[in-house]
Design brief:
The chain is an all-alpha fold and about 300 residues long. It has one domain (about 1-210). Helix content is about 75%, strand content about 5%. The strands form two sheets. It has a two-stranded antiparallel ribbon with strand order 1-2. The protein has a two-stranded antiparallel sheet with strand order 3-4. β3 (about 290) and β4 form a beta hairpin. It is globular. It starts with a helix and ends with a strand. The model has no long low-confidence stretch (mean pLDDT about 90).
């Protein structure tokens, strides 16, 4: 049970990083990104390709970060010509194109079988010290990214992002460069997502296209909606709550004597039902956004 808790906590930290990165886009800048999982995939495949070519983990981290930054810039470039809803659909389409590319380009990505055997970052340490060291690293990075996001959104720059979210035409009339306002949070959040992907790749020791289905993006969305859009603490809280709820579904199945099919169905119900329930009855989430020193 102790090792299981370490595993769930590690995954919660990784999803916390993804929730923070998506929150910077949609929660503060109003950029409705349905292809966020592709930025995560840049990190996973950066680690995997570096491993396959024996370049070392640092090269994998840099490769994943560079790919995520380029993809984020491409997303931002699309946003110059498309409305918010069409831009969201375009990001979803790009993510699916990249997943299809990863599935078919076996020479680079391992194809549908993916790339196996990545080393764990602390694999040389005995159990439970190796998993504990991984958890500590993920927790430290989560705290650092939370502090970075807090610093970004609590100053004048954060006010500009909120103005972009609420009144983009007013922001333009006041002299703000809307393209730059969209570009910066996309690149920063892309780098955070790539770091999460790099850590996940070395934690799972396997990278494949099945990890990049759009359902994973909507899982991150559900964490944001449940925790609270526009609140970094809410994003992390939503990630931990959803991850622990999903992790304990098999125990509920065993306790009730239900068939194995119940696990997948219940997880989908938790994601979809939680998303729908909060959208209908508590749109501000568990920890609402703070506006003018008070919660919205």
């Amino acid at each position: 049970m102790f090792e299981f808790l370490i595993h769930v906590s590690t995954m919660a930290c990784l999803f916390g990083l993804l929730a923070l990165s998506l929150n910077l886009q949609v929660g503060f800048a109003g950029l409705v990104n349905f292809g966020h999982i592709a930025l995560f995939g840049c990190g996973t495949y950066g680690a995997a390709i570096a491993f396959a070519n024996q370049w070392g983990p640092l090269a994998g981290l840099l490769l994943g970060g560079a790919a995520a930054a380029l993809l984020a810039l491409a997303f931002a470039r699309l946003g110059r010509n498309l409305g918010a809803d069409y831009w969201g659909i375009a990001t979803l389409s790009i993510a699916e194109i990249l997943r299809t590319f990863a599935t078919n380009e076996q020479w680079l990505t391992g194809g549908a079988q993916g790339i196996h055997g990545l080393p764990m970052l602390f694999g040389s340490l005995p159990t439970p010290w190796g998993p504990l060291a991984t958890l500590a690293l993920c927790a430290v990075l989560l705290a650092a990214c939370w502090a970075l996001c807090q610093r970004l959104v609590n100053g004048r720059y954060g006010l500009a992002l909120k103005l972009l979210r609420e009144e983009p035409q007013l922001a333009s009339s006041l002299g703000y460069d809307l393209a730059a306002l969209r570009r910066t949070p996309l690149v920063i959040s892309g780098l955070i997502a790539a770091v999460a992907g790099f850590l996940f790749a070395h934690y799972a020791t396997f990278v494949g296209p099945d990890q990049l289905y759009s359902a994973e993006t909507f899982l991150i969305w559900s964490m944001l909606i449940v925790g609270g859009l526009g609140n970094n603490l809410g994003a992390v809280a939503g990630a931990f709550l959803m991850q622990f709820l999903l992790a304990y579904v098999p125990f509920v199945k065993d306790a009730l004597g239900l068939p194995s099919e119940f696990v997948a169905a219940m997880r989908l119900t938790l994601v979809g039902g939680g998303l729908l329930a909060f959208l209908l009855w508590r749109t501000q989430g568990l920890i609402p956004e703070r506006i003018g020193g008070r919660h919205a």
